[in-house]
């Protein structure tokens, strides 16, 4: 039994020695690094003759910025087991720390590969990449400063001077795997208190600030911060105190200044505005408003600098719906239908066909403009009975017909809302001038 245990011990010891030897042969190399402002030179002695033809395919460069294309390298074999690798930073970011990884590079000895990892710290003088000119900023929104080399946040706090006070936060990016990492060349500055509109602030970075590579800022750097003026909302629909507003209004606003965003808040719902151009926007609700109800809607716009306007609050009230008032709610979503009401009572639902992408007017509240017994399209030689006009060149009619008054496919043949003649005759009798018409998804 004792001999058995001795044998197991010897086998285990031999196996361990073999593994240690293999690890030593694979990973033990002699390497050294020399760096200057322009490049880094890495020399590696693999101790065994290497397969030089396949060597390049076993090299990988990694950095925090997740982009090996920002580095160039060249190879030079000093002999069959010593290689010299010259590395250069080839974009505007300098002074980075990177890793040169060589993994399972084949030697000239069959079955033996070599691996090595070398850390390189480049050097780079500190410069501000942006902003390079006076920066127009918001009184409350953050702005970004970018350096050409990694800098510690503590160094920025220590060497930054300004009449205003800021919180400073590293800029977050996503790597190729979607994982967040902090870019220590970019920093976001948040005003601790609102800045004064239309005032210029001087932001000074004093000389002596150190980069992560150990270089120092040689001269004071000045950034001029111009705080934007408050943008102004000129006009809204509805206006203050408006009454008899439809149950699905198309809210609008006009700005004095070119805007990049507009929002409205009503009943706890925030609505993102749709910009018609830089000066006009409109807003659509998710659902109908209640009749005979007072509402308050808050409008606000934002301009390119991030500056926000004052909130413009508008009070308005909606139209009445007595028990006999007839109105229609046209739904243009996946199920196209006309819901017909008297007061708040649904009395009929009429399906229809419509080419949404070409013919739908702007969503909102309309009122019947006019009606005629016949719809005619002379250009296409088409027509229909019971023409109810909602807006210019758009309305509701009966079955679409050709020049011989033969019925055609409603959806393919018209840009209006087409319903059956029977439904159209009923609706034609019910609809009168100024009947409320709601069009929505």
UniProtKB/TrEMBL annotation:
InterPro entries: Transpep_catalytic_dom
The entry's keywords: Membrane, Transmembrane, Transmembrane helix
Segments crossing the lipid bilayer: 7-25
Domain of life where this protein originates: Bacteria
Protein name, as recorded: Uncharacterized protein
Organism: Candidatus Cellulosilyticum pullistercoris
């Amino acid at each position: 039994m004792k001999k058995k245990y001795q044998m197991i011990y010897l086998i285990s010891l031999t196996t361990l020695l073999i593994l240690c030897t293999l690890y030593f042969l694979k990973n033990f190399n002699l390497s050294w690094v020399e760096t200057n402002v322009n490049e880094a030179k890495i020399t590696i002695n693999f101790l065994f003759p290497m397969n030089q033809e396949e060597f390049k395919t076993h090299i990988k460069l990694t950095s925090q910025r997740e982009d090996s294309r920002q580095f160039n390298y060249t190879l030079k074999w000093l002999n069959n087991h010593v290689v010299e690798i010259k590395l250069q930073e080839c974009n505007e970011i300098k002074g980075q720390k990177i890793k040169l990884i060589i993994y399972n590079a084949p030697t000239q000895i069959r079955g033996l590969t070599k691996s090595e990892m070398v850390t390189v710290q480049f050097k780079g003088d500190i410069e501000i990449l942006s902003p390079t000119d006076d920066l127009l900023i918001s009184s409350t929104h953050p702005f970004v400063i970018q350096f050409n080399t990694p800098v510690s946040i503590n160094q920025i706090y220590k060497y930054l001077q300004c009449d205003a006070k800021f919180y400073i936060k590293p800029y977050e990016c996503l790597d190729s795997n979607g994982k967040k990492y902090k870019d220590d060349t970019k920093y976001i500055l948040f005003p601790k208190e609102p800045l004064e509109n239309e005032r210029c602030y001087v932001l000074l970075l004093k000389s002596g600030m150190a980069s992560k590579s150990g270089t120092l800022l040689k001269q004071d750097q000045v950034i001029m911060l111009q705080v934007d003026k408050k943008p102004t909302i000129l006009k809204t629909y509805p206006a203050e105190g408006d009454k008899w507003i439809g149950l699905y209004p198309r809210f609008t606003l006009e700005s004095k200044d070119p805007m990049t965003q507009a929002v409205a808040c009503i009943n706890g719902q925030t609505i993102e505005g749709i910009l018609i151009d830089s000066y006009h926007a409109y807003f659509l609700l998710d659902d109908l408003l209640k009749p005979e109800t007072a509402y308050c809607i808050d409008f606000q716009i934002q301009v390119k600098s991030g500056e926000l306007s004052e909130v413009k609050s508008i009070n308005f009230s909606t139209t009445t719906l007595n028990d006999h008032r007839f109105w229609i709610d046209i739904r243009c979503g996946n199920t196209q239908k006309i819901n017909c009401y008297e007061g708040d009572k649904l009395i009929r639902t009429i399906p229809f066909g419509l080419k949404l992408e070409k013919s739908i007017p702007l969503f909102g509240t309309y009122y019947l403009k006019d009606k005629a017994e016949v719809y005619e399209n002379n250009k296409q030689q088409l027509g229909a009975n019971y023409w109810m006009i909602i807006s210019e060149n758009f309305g509701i009619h009966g079955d679409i017909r050709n020049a011989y008054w033969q019925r055609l496919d409603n959806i393919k043949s018209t840009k209006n809302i087409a319903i059956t003649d029977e439904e159209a005759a009923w609706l034609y009798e019910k609809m009168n001038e100024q009947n409320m018409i709601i069009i929505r998804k």
